Amino acid sequence: MKGLSGLLQFFIGFILGVALFVGGISLAGYLIFNRFAANPEKPLFPEEQSQPKDDKPSPTGTASPQASPKPSPSPSPTEELPSGAYKAKVIWNGGLNVRTEPDSNSDALVTINYSDEVVVLTTQGEWSKLRVEGTEGWVRSGNLEKLATP
């Protein structure tokens, strides 16, 4: 009887030890890999900032590592809006390319950032013609939110 009891204690101890070992490894793996699951902060590259297409980017060696964002282009407060036009802001968090034609394959004129204010001149289907930084072009209407008129 004493030999059977010792054998039972050995098996229970062995199973408990394996369970604790596997549990510890699993917890350590969870804590380590959980750090990798968090999304890093979105970097702001100079190419993503609002700038006319014909501006030449600075050479790679002279660009500062901490690029300061340009101020948001917005219509001047005294600007008269054309008939039927309204102010809107960009709600697409990746920013938008203002295009020459209402077609996603047309050339980009300028890039506008999230929450930049623009003047929407007309809407044609799912595209809106707008004015920003003295340039007129097209963006998809669903990426804009109409601002309340004062």
Outline the secondary-structure elements.
Elements (H helix, E strand, L loop, with lengths): L1 H36 L48 E5 L5 E4 L8 E5 L4 E8 L2 E6 L2 E6 L3 E3 L4
Antiparallel strand pairs: 1-4, 1-7, 2-3, 4-5, 5-6
Can you put this structure into words, describing what you see?
With 150 residues, this protein is of the alpha+beta class. Helices cover 24% and strands 25% of the residues. It contains 1 helix and 7 strands. The strands form 2 sheets. The protein has a 5-stranded antiparallel beta sheet with strand order 6-5-4-1-7, with no helix packed on it. A hairpin with a 2-residue loop joins β4 (117-124) and β5.
Largest sheet: 5 strands, antiparallel
User: What is the strand content?
Assistant: 15-25%
pLDDT < 50 runs, ≥5 residues: 61-69
Query: How far is the N terminus from the C terminus?
Result: 92 Å
Shape: rod-shaped
Counting H and I runs of at least 4 residues, what is the number of helices? 1
Sequence of strands across the biggest β-sheet = 6-5-4-1-7
Helix content: 10-25%
Total beta strands: 7
One letter per element, helices H and strands E, the order comes to HEEEEEEE
Structural category = alpha+beta
Mean pLDDT: 78
Rg, Å, rounded:
29 Å
